[in-house]
Amino acid sequence: MALSGRACAPQHLHLEVQKLISEDEVEPDIFKQLPKCLSQDQDPALSGKACVPVDPYGWEGPEDDPYTALTGVVNLRLWAHTPGLPPAVAAEFTIEVRDETEGVADFDQDATITEEDGANDTGTFRIGVDLGGIPLSGGNTASVTVTMSGNAEDTDFTQAVIQAIADQSGTIATSGQTATDVTLTWGEDDPLFFDSNLTSLDDVLDDGGDTLTLSLSNPIVTNGTAAVATGMASADLTITDDDGPFRF
Q: Which contacts (CB < 8 Å, 24+ apart) does range 168-173 have?
């Protein structure tokens, strides 16, 4: 028997025990009248079932050890529910990059473009969030800050880096934008990721190769937990340059 729980703010903690009822266990007309499971959208195991509250002191087992008693009773589930708050999510933010020679399945943590090569002068950063299958709803939001660093500068691209990210984020909100960072905030119905294309500027200077690093920090979720995925906190785009030294 599986136990299920959700983290709640202590001042709103509400515990209840529910007996899971499948449609084939009772008459169809009776099943329709039973209350549906709380937050069944959060737990696939609750899909298609009704939940009937059970007296928390009425199960079989040691009276002073409800957890032991609970595990000895079939089809009982301990459920933590926070009234008035949207469903909690566990968000993991990611950033990856690829060049034009790589396919859409080849995003990883580094890529190289060449400013003189029209077939490979654009790098694509993919910034996204994995919500673990639970969509943002009820005003819940997830945000993360993107920061640029490295020896590549805005002048190495056809558009300022942070401005390009803000312009290409679509419905994902931006805030706190500066020359080197911007905060992205996902809300209900926003896509889980977006791509930002950065095209190198073909000039006559011998740059010797520059690298742009985009990093993620300060992950936040209104209700739930937030983190930057391990190994996907930053991505590097290197620009190679075939220009020779400029001579007068």
A: 168/194, 168/195, 168/196, 168/197, 169/194, 169/196, 170/194
Neighbour tally for 80: CB within 10 Å: 17
**pLDDT (tens digit, 9 = 90+) per residue, 64-92?**
444 434 443 333 333 343 455 677 889 99
| 203 and 162 in a common domain | yes
Distances (CA, A) of 101 to 113, 120, 123, 124, 156: 9, 6, 10, 11, 20
> Is 151 within the bounds of a domain?
yes
CATH number of the domain where residue 123 is located: 2.60.40.2030
Query: Which residues form the domain of 225?
Result: 89-240
| pLDDT (tens digit per residue) in 209-246 | 799 999 999 999 998 899 999 999 999 999 997 655 54
Domain boundary among 23, 57, 80: 80
Dig out the tokens for 39 from the structure. Answer: 């937050």
> Last residue of a domain, which of 20, 52, 80?
80
Cα–Cα distance, 23 to 33 (Å, whole number): 11
State the greatest distance between any 2 C-alpha atoms of the chain, in Å, as a whole number.
93
First and final C-alpha spacing in the chain = 80
